Every structure is written in structure tokens, then in C-alpha cells.
Amino acid sequence: MPVLSLGYLRLNVESAERWNPFVRDFIGMMPVDGPLPDSLHYRMDHYPPRLVVTESAVPGLDAVGFEVLNRSDLKDLVSRVESAGIETRAGTAEECALRQVTGFAAFDDPSGNRVELFYGPVLSHRRVELPHLSGFVTGDQGMGHVILNCVDTEATYEFYVGVLGFAERNSLALPGGTSYFLGCNARQHTLGLNPAAGPALLHFMVETVDLDDMGKALDRAHDLEVPMMQSLGKHTNDRMLSFYTYSPDGHATEIGCGERIEDAAPTYRITEGAVWGHRYTPPPAGAKGLPQ
Ligand SMILES: [Fe+2]
Residue 291: inside a domain, yes or no? Predict the structure, then answer.
């Protein structure tokens, strides 16, 4: 069975101090103590922290965690990855404890982005406290979606579709190549591949349960002076209402609501990103732009 969903995101960042207000106060995730004393851990639901932020002299993507069904599926997928000529490494017991998972394997995709396939999340039975919103859409749709920069988009596409079992949902022709939107569950896309120098996390998205939750996040962005990147708009592929801000490290951070559930439609090519809105604002002077 292919990958189930986006499980977690681990980021190395320039300044952890700037991330706490961004994630806790703006996005609205729940800060919790975690096994890494110098890292910030945020819960979205009953899963282990889905976002882990660590200050580092070398900022960038630490790992994208994709959930798989169980030990047997992990073993099958690891052998497929190895057969594709990519070296994998099994997570040690200590590393599993840090991630609060039962098992995982790590490897780099063909563009050098670090991937971890994991199974058996260690669940929290203490209710998640989200004072700013009624909830995030997670469950079998996972944490949301990510877009990764890819030095070789075609080889990376072949890997995620041919080896890990993602489905191509749609594509978009860009001046530097083709951007692909790939799905593995009811989300229209869980993973996007962007043709650009990398490896790097270009973008991540989380979805709120209620439209008012997303609207209130827009208010908080204004109140907290979080730099806006794209105004409120509606995407042409996932039909989601959303807006984008810049993270403290320049990632395009999208908060959306009302993603259209994919119904195994044939793949298609879009020619615009938005039906309306999503007007772009460059990063403010002194702030980081998007990692390229
Ligand atoms: Fe997005």
C-alpha cells in the first residue's frame, strides 16, 4: 500500500524565538514539551507533534514525514526505494523515541529532500487545546500538504509516483519546467514538486475545519503583523479558500479551508493557480524571501 498521508514536518530554522509566536499565536497549533529540549514541538491533533522546529546554524528542511500503514508496509516500501537505487537508513530506537513513532526509515529523494517513512505514531490521549480555532483537518488526510523544490523534477516525479505510489492529480507548466501536484489520500494534493534549485521546503499548508477559523487566522495575521504573501483566494486545483503568509524563514505558509475532495478524476493541467485572489506581495524589506 502506498504512503497514507503527510504525517509531520521537521524544520531547522534561523531563530526559534521568531517561530513560537508564528506557530502558536498565528497558526494556532498547540505548543507542547517534547523529547528535544531545544526544539519547539506543536500538536495539531492526537498525533505526536506534527511540526518540530529546531534552531540551527544550517537552516532548512530537516525531514518530511509520510505515514505508512504498519511495519509490513514500511518494509515493502523500503525495499522498493532500495530497488530504485536509493540508500535508506532505519531509524534507531532513540530516533523513534524522539519522533514518538514505532518505526521509520530515512532517505533522500532524487532531488535531495530528506524523507522519513514512519508507522505507529504514539498517540496522545490528552485533548489537544486549540484556543484560536475549532480544529485542523487531519485524520486520514494527514497534516496538510507541502511543496518541495526539486533540482530534477522529472526524476523526482518518477520516484514519488513510480516507487512510493503517489498519484498525479494535476500539473502546471512553468518557465523553468513543470510543477506537479501529487496525491495519496482524499486531499487533492499532499505533495507538490516545484522545479527550482533545492533541496528546500518551498511551502506548507494546514487546513482549518471551519471557514471562520481561516477568517480569524487572517485577522490574526493582520493583528500580529505577519507578512502577507498572497491575499485571500481560491485555488484552481484543490478549490480551497486560503491565504499565504511568509514564515519567519520565508516559507510560503498557507492556511486554507474547504479543500475539494479528490474523486479519482483523470489528471489535468492548470494554467492559473487561482480562480480569484491570491494576489502576491513581495517579502517586506529585511525579511527573508522564499528559499530557492
Ligand atoms: Fe498550497
Answer: no
pLDDT tier for residue 284 given thresholds of 50, 70 and 90: confident
| pLDDT tens digits for range 167-188 | 999 999 998 899 999 999 999 9
pLDDT mean over 262-266: 82
Distance from C-alpha of 144 to C-alpha of 167, rounded to nearest angstrom: 16
Of 121, 150, 177, which residue sits at a domain end? 121
Measured between alpha carbons, how far is 187 from 184 in angstroms, rounded to an integer?
Answer: 7
CATH of the domain at 233: 3.10.180.10
- Ligand 1 centre and the CA of 85: distance in Å? 30
Please report the pLDDT score of residue 287 as a whole number: 66
Q: Residue 263: CB partners within 8 Å, gap ≥ 6?
A: none
> What is the distance in A from the centroid of ligand 1 to the CA of 50?
17
Distance, CA 241 to ligand 1 centroid (Å)?
A: 10
The tally of domains found in the chain comes to 2
**C-alpha 279: how far from chain center:** 22
Alpha-carbon span 4 to 67, nearest angstrom: 6
